Amino acid sequence: MDDGMKNGNSDMTPERLFTAVRLSPELRGAVSGMCRRLSQELPFAKWTHEGDYHITLQFLGDTDPRNIPELVSALKKSAADFGPFTMSLRGTGVFGAPSAPRVLWAGLDGETDRLRELHSRIVAATEPLGFRAEERAYKPHVTLARKYRGEQGFDSQYLDALTREESVLQASWKVDEWVLFATRMHNKPMYEIVETIKI
């Protein structure tokens, strides 16, 4: 288990866990630069920390720390023979009310079928341990910001104009690992790596 957990939770308080694919370090930096520019024009309440950019695979929720070793073992087996694949960022969009969205996101392209297969393998591996897949459809994305706070209604055409020339929204990266994250509310970055799993 990664050293990071040693600093996190030494008692038996449940860990809030999820699995995710991270953006490459170079891409995380480039996306952060784009978001600094966007934040000057788009009044969202909270912009994602550079270290937290990711694509969620499965949200696992509150987990007894004593069960984490068994979980990690199951996760490693789920993708032991999976192999690397390539993902790309592609465009932006929002979730929530069009005039006051709750999430600003970057979309995905590339080998999205492989991403969905990895998601399915993880869900299948964690179900025998008592974890449940979310009922809503899997919609992979990268969250950039949350809670629009503008005095004027949000304008998706303005977002398109702001991001049209952003080369980072066409950038690709090789996915050769994924992570088990623990949430550390109010920390920056907010997500701490429990385990890194190579594929």
UniProtKB/TrEMBL annotation:
It is an enzyme of class 3 (hydrolase). A motif (HXTX 2) lies at residues 141-144. This is RNA 2',3'-cyclic phosphodiesterase. It holds the Pfam family 2_5_RNA_ligase2. The active site is at residues 54, 141. It catalyses: a 3'-end 2',3'-cyclophospho-ribonucleotide-RNA + H2O = a 3'-end 2'-phospho-ribonucleotide-RNA + H(+). It comes from the Bacteria. Keywords: Hydrolase. GO terms for molecular function: 2',3'-cyclic-nucleotide 3'-phosphodiesterase activity; RNA 2',3'-cyclic 3'-phosphodiesterase activity. A motif (HXTX 1) lies at residues 54-57. PANTHER family: RNA 2',3'-CYCLIC PHOSPHODIESTERASE. Belongs to the 2H phosphoesterase superfamily. ThpR family. Its EC number is 3.1.4.58. Hydrolyzes RNA 2',3'-cyclic phosphodiester to an RNA 2'-phosphomonoester.
